[in-house]
Amino acid sequence: MTDLAQLILSGVALGMIYALLAFGYNITYSTSRTINFAQGEFLMLGALTGLTCDVRLRLGYLGALAGAALVGAALGVLLERVAIRPALRTGSTVAWVLATVALAIVARNAAERIWGTDDTLFPAPLGSDPLQIGGVRVLPQELLVIAAAAVIMLLVEAFRRWSLWGRAVTAVAADKDAAALVGINVPVVIVASFVLSSAIAAVSGVLVAPLTLAGPTMGILLGTKAYAVAIVGGLQSGVGVVVGGLLIGLCEQLTARYISTGYKDTPGFVLLILILLIKPSGLFGRRSIEKV
Amino acid sequence: MARFLSIWRRSRLPLLVALCFCVPFVTSNEYYVHSVLSKVCIYTIVIAGLDLVVGYSGDVSVGHAGLFAAGAYTTAILVWRLALPYPLAVLAGIAMGALFGLLLGVPALRLSGPYLAVATIAFGLIVQTFVNEAVWLTNGSQGIRDIPPLVWGRLSFEGNNFYFLVYPLMVLSLLAVHRLARSYWGRAFEALRENTVAAECSGVSRYRYKLGAFILSAALAGLGGGLFVHIDNYIGPPTFSEQLSILFLIALIFGGTRSIAGNVLGTFLVIVLPDVFNPVTDYQLMIFGGLLLFTLYFVPQGLAGLLGAVGRRLLAGRFGEPPAAAAPVPAGDAVAVHRARPTAGGALLETQGLTVAFGGLVAVSALDLHLEPGRVHALIGPNGSGKSTTVNLLSGLYRPTAGAIRFAGREIGRLPPDRVSRLGIARTFQNVALFGDMSVLDNVLIGLHHSFGGGLLHVLLGSGRARREETAARARAQALLEFVGLGGLGGERARSLPYGKQRLLEIARALAQDPALILLDEPAAGLTSAEIAAVDGLIGKLRGLGIGILLIEHHMDLVMSISDQVTVLDFGQCIAAGKPSEVQRDERVIAAYLGAAAPAAPGAPGVVHA
């Protein structure tokens, strides 16, 4: 029983990281109908930047988070400029998918050159000794991940709903032309959405790295699973990504425990295909009607 | 000189193909022939297939390495474990690729958007996990080593001879892709990419052709995989990583999409460049990524397009190329413009209580329409009264919330737009929806999509039937262009036509579908009065052909002069119906247009501006 409780907790922690990344897809998809195929690489760059800030520059874990957020924000601007804006101008899906994929391999290669190809241990800020809670052994970092992810998502959601800026984002998501007509600077809103999304990805890198390891390849699987989460939950739904993230995180832990660790990465992708077959708009998505 | 040039032009390609076949006779360097050229041939097969998806259909697959792996592992396992003959094993590899293409495409292509890209990335990772983990089948990370050499008696395809197997297969694959791309299939791919809604409303099934492109592409990846097994007589999991999928995409974009020369060129460079960049091999991915970005935005037509443009410019000065031969098309008179459909007597289209609601907003409410063949039925009303929504309902783009649509005795309310088009309802769009980068003639040919009965095999084999159908369709498309007054413009790009002519082209495309009913959504919007007169005349001619017409229009002079019947909508509800003269006098109509408080103006409400 405690064994299962432990699995569930690790599943939830992992699921929250997926949810956080998918939440980032959610933000950019709503404003620009694109998602960043380099999101996993941004997570990785965030983790490695954090590692440098924390260990090399001795800025501590908070310094690592701040450094990652800054680098993430800068990457967001770069991404929007280099990959998204030109593609939106040509109106071609192929262009933005390929441009973000190109950025992903450039980012991975750059990280290898800067930080080396090896995986490094990321010191856990709250220590790596498990806590005993009712007989269940819990890593403090897992609790930190769950709490931090929840706080970030709640803050962003509150910002989206109740601040003027957030409403501008919602307006752009609903109708770009109408938003522009009432005086919203649509290009700026789109840039802002990429800045936010990329900063969140980079911060989640610093959150997850103490649980995994930090290295140039850490982003591939995490990023890909987050696509699965985003689509399973519904590309436009904030609740959906949390439920999707938790669902996939749990399925993975259960697969690893009861089937084989080798296959622990597959349930997310199986769920993805199933959802596309059964309810392609996602668990919490609504079918949108395109105006002709 | 001219004669020499024409012979040269016709024979240069076969000559080049034959010359390339002879390379191993010239150099016997094992590295260049076997490791480079044979690999180029195999990858080119995969990339030409990928072009069907990315270049023609406009979707992205980031999982072709997974399909490639499926072909390779199927082939290798069959010859190694079951000692199946190699050709059979390769066929099984192709089938396995196609099967996975089907399994992936069916769910992922239902919606447009990034779904295929995401699903294929996931698929690629699953395949990699599987070949690593299923040791009992794939030998896991060890890979499969003991693949028997390709020797039958004295015939050996080992070493440099392997090229004599893969090169012809590459040529055949490229020929197949070329034929497909130049056929109505290729046109359907392009139309769907340019404007999905317009293509569907012209009778092209989005799902069928997107899926078709993806499955064919997957089958070619399977073939490539089956051949790849013999590059080293060894396969192992690291080869089939996500990076290989990306490499395929880079080769495709770099060489140039929708071009066979581009496919070959791009593949060649991607395989050879790492050797060139050997000193900076640690930065290889950065260089490739940078190249991809650069090509995407600065050389979108790719290297082949660039070289082609440069070559044409150089040659033009020297020889003066003959004008691009517009295929000679027989005179329009001989070809029937419209083939009437046998229709049962009575109403052509009837709606009963037709209602659609978007959330809480009821856009069309309990609408009853009754349209007859050979008559013009106008649907008018202020902006936002539900006219275009009605057209979208009738053409299958929206599903009614309640009520029935009966067309020629058949309930069509739940049919998708391409089926509706095939049953005989064609439409035009309020905001002109043409395939802008395709030629004017090709736009009409998309409307004639239904006239092609020869299936995929006919196209791939270049059968007589496929050619006859193409010739007949071209002749009819030309006749249709002449019918609407665009006879000499078939070779222009649709985008470059003036606005008024674009509207006429839409009507030609609609007429090409042999409709019994045409829905014209504001055909005169934005036109000059001379152009409006042309549209007016054209509508009369359509009626003369016995076609029923539903006309949405704000130009009241046009509506009142041409319509047999008028229905007036306001807030989604029918507020008046009858002959034009009756409707003009209706108090509620005048109130809807001019406001209730206004004095009832005599005569027509006049032109109402949007």
Report a brief summary of the structure.
Chain A has helices at 2-32, 39-56, 60-90, 93-115, 140-162, 164-174, 176-181, 186-208, 218-233, 238-258, 267-278; strands at residues 131-133, 136-138. With 292 residues, chain A is mostly helical.
Largest interface: A-B, 51 and 55 residues
Radius of gyration of chain B (Å) = 29 Å
Alpha-carbon distance between the two ends of chain A: 56 Å
Q: Give the total of beta strands of chain A.
A: 2
Unreliable stretches of chain A (pLDDT < 50, length at least 5) are none
Number of strands of chain B: 12
Strand fraction of chain B equals 5-15%
The class by helix and strand makeup of chain B works out as alpha/beta
Average predicted confidence as pLDDT of chain A = 92
Strand order of the largest sheet of chain B: 8-9-10-5-11-12
